[in-house]
Design brief:
Strand order of the largest sheet: 4-3-2-1-5
Strand content: 25-35%
Helix content: 10-25%
Structural class: alpha+beta
Order of helices and strands: HEEEEEH
CATH class: Mainly Beta
Number of helices: 2
Largest sheet: 5 strands, antiparallel
CATH topology: SH3 type barrels
Distance between the termini: 43 Å
Length: 83
């Protein structure tokens, strides 16, 4: 998977969610592995993985964590006052 990230410049990681739009409809899935420069993705509607090119009709869905979300200004002010 490191090879795919380096050579295609994508943030692919095992377990990452993706959105595939190649069949004219939006489908979501999970990256399970990589082999031969392709990603093995299990679409939510499928039992098994299928191979996808890392840059073709895929959108990588970044997880939202507390570290990536900036709290509202009023909450930041209250947090500073509590310290």
């Amino acid at each position: 998977m490191a090879w795919v990230r380096k050579n295609y410049g994508v943030p692919a990681q095992r377990g990452m969610r993706v959105e595939y739009t190649g069949d004219g409809k939006v489908e979501t899935g999970t990256i399970r592995s990589a082999s031969g420069g392709r990603l093995n993705i299990q679409l939510d509607t499928a039992k098994h993985t299928c191979q996808f090119h890392p840059t073709w009709e895929l959108r990588y869905l970044m997880p939202v964590t507390l570290a990536t979300v900036k709290p509202p200004r009023e909450l930041r002010t209250r947090l500073r006052e509590d310290v």
